From TrEMBL:
Location in or out of the cell: Cell membrane
Gene Ontology molecular function: acyltransferase activity
Family annotation (Pfam families): MBOAT
Protein name: Membrane-bound O-acyltransferase family protein
Lineage top rank: taxon: Bacteria
GO biological process per UniProt: alginic acid biosynthetic process
TM ranges: 6-23, 35-65, 85-103, 124-142, 154-173, 194-212, 318-341, 362-379, 421-441, 453-475
Family: Belongs to the membrane-bound acyltransferase family.
Length: 477
């Protein structure tokens, strides 16, 4: 089930909201939690019920491992096994599950390329959200190992993993961020300010997705997947279209997740903070997909040694972290190369900082944004040839005639007019000069007539466009 679908907006969400708070009003707190878990699993199963046993088995396994890590090594099920052994076992099993479904065919195809062995691909369908709920549960195991988290109630743990606003594509949350909120008695009753703010942020996210991102998606698809050749202007239009599509698609999803969670009085962590305003690549990763950046830092970069073992080791750790981050996004060498590019950029930035050089803000922004834009080409391209087609055309003057309407032919084939070009300018203005949704999330929202009218406009306009339902990009990762 998609957030941007009529059945979710007008059926699923209202029913879950009213039943959850009705059960709480009758002091049936356990029943309300159980209903929310059931609703979340129903939400997950709507996509493909075949994979419901997979997420249930994963939850049960990690619940048992997490509890075993919380006990003293000298007692209970830990007897004879060290905490290091149990944690390693838990992480390996989680990664094996993820590896089997996400990377088995990638491994087979590459094995076939370098050897004479010809193994048939498994052609596995990637289970929805497996990357997100796997990383979230690995973080839970590590937190349990560090005695930062204890959970002895399976219902609570199931709610932590399956809470439907963040189940499919994050944010990646910690147990200690979520469960105290569900336990708070103040969160068991309807909060009308949270409802108003939640509806506003949800409407903003829905507008981002169905009005802005999906419009850019048509142009990006035309340039990457349909066009045989591109001229310079068309290539830049294609790359910028995907750069904006990805931003408004994923930040739109995150806004919707945050808004829906607020309806239930739950505050999810901030996941985006105007990343295209970044003045350097480190700043970009502090703003883009913040919970994933946090995970990579806390559970990969720091355990590898972080910056504690000298400059060379720091650069190796940065490269390893971002190559892994690239591979997490997808089983393909283009994703690995995208991660490699960001790793190199961060190493260069670190050297630049150590020398003490500073660039004027406008130049720093220009370099950062264009690097991110160019790197996204490899993230988007289905094949190396697609990336080369777009990238080479971005720096070629062949077939460019600024006095013709060649660029218009690309636009007309999509929308019948040149509105997409205007939307690109509009997108730049939005991401660079306007407050983002988190400005309102952080206590800058007033529940008044103006905000009500804006919410109504955004929601109404977006709902009209929901008929062209499209899957969120991060569902693929």
């Amino acid at each position: 089930m998609l957030f941007n679908s009529y059945e979710f907006i007008f059926v699923f969400l209202p029913i879950v909201f009213f039943v959850y708070f009705y059960l709480n009003s009758k002091r049936l707190t356990v029943g309300a939690k159980g209903f929310l878990v059931f609703a979340s699993l129903f939400f997950y199963s709507w996509w493909n019920v075949v994979y419901l046993p997979l997420i249930l088995s994963s939850m049960l396994f990690n619940y048992v491992i997490g509890n075993s890590l919380a006990f003293d090594n000298k007692r209970g099920i830990n007897k004879g096994f060290s905490k290091n052994t149990i944690l390693t076992f838990g992480i390996v099993c989680n990664l094996a599950l993820l590896g089997y479904f996400k990377y088995a065919d990638f491994f087979i195809l590459n094995l076939n390329l370098v050897t004479d062995i010809q193994v048939e691909p498994l052609n596995l369908l990637l289970p929805l959200a497996i990357s997100f709920f796997t990383f979230q549960q690995i973080a839970y195991l590590v937190d349990s190992y560090r005695d930062e988290t204890k959970e002895y109630d399976f219902l609570n743990y199931a709610l932590f993993v399956t809470f439907f606003p963040q189940l499919i594509a994050g944010p990646i949350v910690h147990h200690k961020e979520m469960m105290p909120q569900f336990a708070s008695k103040w969160n068991l009753v309807k909060n009308y300010r949270n409802i108003a703010l939640g509806l506003f942020i949800f409407s903003l996210g829905l507008f981002k997705k169905v009005v802005i991102a999906d419009t850019f998606a048509e142009w990006a698809t035309n340039g990457f997947d349909r066009a045989v050749t591109l001229n310079l202007v068309e290539a830049w239009a294609t790359s910028l279209s995907y750069t904006f599509q990805l931003y408004f698609d994923f930040s739109g999803y995150t806004d919707m997740a945050i808004g829906i969670a607020l309806l239930f009085n739950i505050k999810l962590p901030i996941n985006f903070n105007s990343p295209y305003k970044a003045l350097d690549i480190q700043d970009f990763w502090r703003r883009w997909h913040i919970t994933l950046s946090r995970f990579l830092r806390d559970y990969i970069y720091i355990p590898l040694g972080g910056n504690r073992k000298g400059n060379f080791r720091t650069y190796v750790n940065l490269m390893a972290t971002f190559v892994i981050g690239g591979l997490w996004h997808g089983a393909g060498w283009t994703f690995v190369f995208w991660g490699f590019l960001h790793g190199v950029a961060l190493c260069i930035h670190r050297v630049w900082q150590s020398i003490g050089f500073r660039l004027p803000k406008v130049i720093a922004w220009f370099i950062t944004f264009n690097f991110v834009n160019i790197a996204w080409i490899f993230f988007r391209a289905k094949e190396w040839d697609d990336a080369v087609k777009v990238l080479s055309s971005m720096f070629s003057l062949d077939n460019v005639n600024f006095y013709t309407y060649k660029i218009s032919s690309l636009l007309v084939s999509i929308n019948g007019n040149d509105k997409t070009l205007g939307l690109s300018v509009f997108a730049f203005i939005l991401v660079l000069y306007f407050n983002n949704s988190m400005y309102y999330y952080n206590n800058n929202f007033d529940k008044n007539r103006k905000s009500s009218l804006l919410t109504s406009f955004l929601l109404s306009y977006a709902v009209i466009e929901v008929h062209r339902v499209s899957v969120f990009l991060y569902f693929n990762f």
